[in-house]
Specification:
3-stranded antiparallel beta sheet, single chain, about 350 residues, 9-stranded antiparallel beta sheet, globular, disordered N terminus, 11 helices
């Protein structure tokens, strides 16, 4: 007799240092006090030839299936590309799909936002156009602070005379100051965040003030679009800080979404010489039950997000009409999606 199929949503995980099993909610605290981890950290710093660096402790989990989670540690100097590569290798890669991070409302990806796929009724983006986009993104990359200040000044001087009074002289002077690209991005973001969103009530008395605020915000956003590096090549320390929450998407068709958070940071050395990313802890594989007999499932029908109603054990799968559409049950938030096999 068939039994109802259920997924046992485990909240437990294994510490990679002491092999202890702990609840998901308690793993962060355990990692702070794990004696075996402390010993491993001490041993890794004994070699004076290894230079200490800033390390981020990050928690990653499935956005819609948080029973899949892991704690990892990565140098802050590494790029989003490194983190993307790790997540692909460990959790999501199946068909070399595109991916992106969203941090503080900004999307970071290696393909331009208007990247077009070859579909019926649409033209493939020309190679020349793609090269132009890349050139635009890299235009400010190698400028000195003085050269960058001059470029910003040229941009401001091109504004129509009737618009110039809307940008306060103090702000114009600040924008013209020599700054590195990273410092300019930080200044623009700080200034934007400090500006009032809008005046609550528009009146004849404040209409000019409203127009000025709108123009200032539009100008600062445009400058930010001009100079900010939004590729996966940007370093983690330039876009992340302790407490920062951000998201990751792999495959913009059958999308797998992750939530991430920077838990803490420390100064230390990478513990794995051959890999810059260290897994600190990972969830125990959830038990997905066969929809027919209720035993642990090993296969799931590809393309279904409701695993409970589309999972089979090795015996029952042979009698399923979907036998040729099966994917293996794997410990990943992408289980059962696209062609992912782990």
């Amino acid at each position: 007799m068939a039994t109802s199929s259920k997924t046992s949503v485990t909240t437990k995980g294994i510490c990679n240092f002491c092999n202890g099993e702990f609840d998901k909610a308690k793993m962060t605290q355990h990692l702070k006090h794990c004696k075996q981890r402390a010993a491993a950290i001490a041993a890794s710093t004994e070699d004076g030839a290894k230079q200490k660096q800033r390390l981020f402790h990050i928690l990653a989990e499935g956005r819609y299936n948080p029973q899949y989670w892991m704690h990892l540690e990565i140098p802050a100097s590494e790029s989003l590309f490194t983190l993307d590569g790790f997540l692909r290798d460990i959790w999501v890669e199946c068909c070399d799909h595109l991916s992106a991070f969203e941090i503080g409302g900004t999307s970071y990806r290696d393909e331009p936002g208007d990247f077009s796929f070859e579909i019926i009724g649409a033209e493939v983006q020309e190679e020349k156009e793609e090269d132009e986009v890349v050139e635009d993104e890299e235009e400010y990359e190698d400028l000195s602070p003085e050269e960058l200040g001059e470029e910003i000044g040229k941009f401001l001087d091109e504004e129509p005379p009737e618009m110039r009074n809307m940008l306060p002289g103090e702000l114009r002077a600040e924008l013209r100051k020599p700054r590195s690209r990273d410092d300019l991005v930080a200044f623009l973001k700080e200034r934007l965040n400090s500006m009032p969103k809008r005046i609550s009530l528009l009146t004849p008395e404040n209409i000019e003030e409203q127009r000025s605020l709108y123009f200032q915000r539009t100008t600062l956003k445009f400058l930010l679009d001009m100079v900010e590096d939004r590729s996966l090549g940007v370093s983690l320390e330039n876009v992340l800080k302790v407490g920062q929450k951000f998201t990751y998407e792999y495959d913009f068709g059958s999308t797998t979404e992750l939530k991430l958070k920077v838990i803490s940071e420390r100064d230390g050395v990478v513990q794995e010489e051959d890999d810059s990313v260290t897994i600190l802890a990972r969830n125990v594989p959830p038990v997905i039950l066969c929809k027919v007999c209720g035993k642990p499932a090993t296969k799931v029908v590809a393309g279904y997000f409701n695993l409970e109603e589309n999972a089979y054990c090795n015996k029952c799968v042979r009698r399923s009409e979907d036998a040729d559409m099966m994917l293996p049950v794997v410990n990943s938030p992408r289980v059962g999606v696209c062609g992912y096999t782990g």
